[in-house]
Amino acid sequence: MDAQDHTAAGPRREPAVRAGTANGRGVLEGAFHLLDVLSAAEEGAGLSELARDAGIPKATTYRLLRQLANLGAVQQHGQRYFVGQRLARLGGSWHPDPRLRAAAREPVRLLSALTTTVVFLTVLEGERVRVITAARGEIKEVPPVLPGSELAEATAAGRVLLTQRPDGDAVPPGFTLAEWRRAQASVRRSGSVAVDHQEVLPGVCCVAVPVRRPDGEIVASISALAVRPAVPAGLTELVLRASREITRNLGRT
């Protein structure tokens, strides 16, 4: 469950803010785009690197960084920039659809207790896989999965959600074309179930299935992560049952 690694599009990317732009909306869009690029740099980034990856002129990037630093959204250590504490606090207050979270809370808790697995419900925010709610019972081998946390695209949860996008054939970040085609084929063969056989973390297996609204629209994925060398017998069916229970709960609200 590594942090996201969103690769920049390079010099061909259309700049978010053109040099000389005085339009307030353009500056705001540029600032958010720059923060998005910076948030993917776990070890921070220098001015030239940020300007290149964001596709924004270097002088404009510098000006935006100074403005964001004054607001506490960016902090500078030496020649590198990082997401500021103020922005990190705001990010921690992210909240998904409260109806979906309420509908999933008990099925997630019960599935974790019955299977001795780490269970989490995830949604797709753009191309980012975000956790809504999670339960891990007595399992201590896996760090807590907190609401708002991001999962890598290659996880079972990521594959389920990304293959169900309207533009599902577009290769998302984190995959080569060949890897994405294999992921699509695997999910389709299994009827929208994704299984991770120690592919992301050694000694860890995971089963993920989609969660639908009563009208059939896929809105989330529920996953059960087992700290075992193989997927436990019957786990897939239990995850599917939990998914159906969430759908029923959504119909009651």
Automatic annotation (TrEMBL):
* PANTHER family, per the entry: HELIX-TURN-HELIX TRANSCRIPTIONAL REGULATOR, ICLR FAMILY (PTHR30136), HTH-TYPE TRANSCRIPTIONAL REPRESSOR ALLR (PTHR30136:SF24)
Output this protein's name: Transcriptional regulator, IclR family
Q: Does the keyword Transcription regulation apply?
A: yes
The HTH iclR-type domain covers which part of the protein?
25-85
Any Pfam family matching the protein: HTH_IclR
InterPro entries in the record: GAF-like_dom_sf (IPR029016), HTH_MetabolicPath_Reg (IPR050707), Tscrpt_reg_IclR_C (IPR014757), Tscrpt_reg_IclR_N (IPR005471), WH-like_DNA-bd_sf (IPR036388), WH_DNA-bd_sf (IPR036390)
Describe the location of the IclR-ED domain by residue ranges. 86-252
Annotated keywords: DNA-binding, Transcription, Transcription regulation
**What Gene3D superfamilies is this protein classified in?**
3.30.450.40, Winged helix-like DNA-binding domain superfamily/Winged helix DNA-binding domain
Q: What GO MF annotations does this protein's record show? A: DNA binding; DNA-binding transcription factor activity
One example of a Gene Ontology biological process annotation: negative regulation of DNA-templated transcription
